[in-house]
Amino acid sequence: MSSPSRAGRALVWIGIPLLAVNLRPAAISVGPVLDEIRAALDMSAAEAGVLTSLPVIAFAVFGALAPRLSALVGPHRLTVVSLACVVGGVLGRSQAGSTLLFLGLSLLALTGMAIANVLLPSLVKQHFPDHIGRLTAIYSTALALGLTSASVLTVPVSEAAGGADGWRSGLAVWSLTAVLALVPWLLLWRQDRDRHTSGASRRVGLGAVARTRLGRRMALFFGLQSLQAYAVFGWFAAIYRDAGYSSTAAGVLLGVVTGVSIPLSFVVPMLAGRLGDLRPLMWPLVVCYPIGYLGLVVLPGAALLWALVTGTAMATFPLALTMIGLRARTTGGTAALSALTQSLGYLLAALGPFGMGLLRDLSGGWTVPLLVLTALSVPLAIVGDSVARPGCLEDELGDVEQDRQPA
Fold first, then answer.
1. Cβ pair 327, 214 in contact under 8 A
2. What does the alpha-carbon distance between residue 328 and residue 116 come to, in Å, rounded to a whole number?
3. Contact residues for 292 (Cβ-Cβ < 8 A; gap 6+)
């Protein structure tokens, strides 16, 4: 096995966080300016519903294709193609003059985002197999920064551009960050000249992973924690407003929830990388979910405290990402586990915001939805206890071969 060049490793170190920063803005930047987009394109409520559903569709459908495409063209080249889709889709839709074109270009950008999202854990596994926790800490923190930036900065950029079409600049600016991320991966293009020695190597089928207990439980764990997160992102601002907080205060409280995830996205994977058994880390995080939800029901006046607790619980997301790298021994196994976990997981996650809204309408308040989220933390803890125990996918597949491919 040839050793990776120092320059190549440096490019990967730079490329991974830059890639991660761009894995949410294509989806998140639409929400803050959705009203302006609808007005400019005469977009119906049904079409807006399709637009808001596209991220989940892209993650579930196109993310699942990532391992096969990576085996065909190589992981570094596929990363370049994925980022090119993000650049073209984000920039193109900012200039779109029709709803159909806007939806199509959004799907292009989200497809690139979904594929790269699945590729990241396997790229980390390929290049830094002994530093999974450290690299996952770096890229999950970068991912949180990208999400927060898109949420906070899209409207100010739109307003700075001025005019009825200011939203176009608010969307287009995120193509610039994707162009920046393209640079190191273009320089790594030649890493995939020989796909048999590139680290993409042996592909593990999604069907085989789905037949393992670890694969199914990882997908369920990822889906249940994502369901919680999407429910919080989608409805907690409304919950705060209905509890008597102003729209500004509600936005700040939701910002506290998401802001807590930034430092924890760095700390949690670092700790996980040093532990064999992740249960001592998993349990305190999951327990924060019912504490945060029930606290908001019983004592809404202490919403800031419950926002901090809920934000802490949502560090189960970087923990789940770290598990993907730790629970597979080979690059091919990591890619397949990542694809199954995230594609099925995001399908389950889509039930979160939909279910919250439905329960709110049926019950006439937020107590029942919050109690249901509290109840769902129980299966999350049970399945989390299972996947947090030491184990590897390849052992269940009957393949204990070590990944000895060059970076």
1. yes
2. 19
3. 306, 307, 309, 310, 312, 313
pTM of this prediction?
Answer: 0.80
Counting Cβ atoms within 10 Å, is residue 32 exposed (0-12), middle (13-18) or buried (19+)? Answer: buried
pLDDT of residue 403: 41
- The burial class, CB within 10 Å (0-12 / 13-18 / 19+), for 145 is middle
Mean pLDDT across the chain: 86
Residues in the chain: 407
pLDDT in tens, 221-235: 999 998 998 888 778
Provide mean pLDDT across the span 302-310.
Answer: 94
**CB contact set of 30 (below 8 Å; sequence gap of 6+):** 37, 51, 52, 106, 171
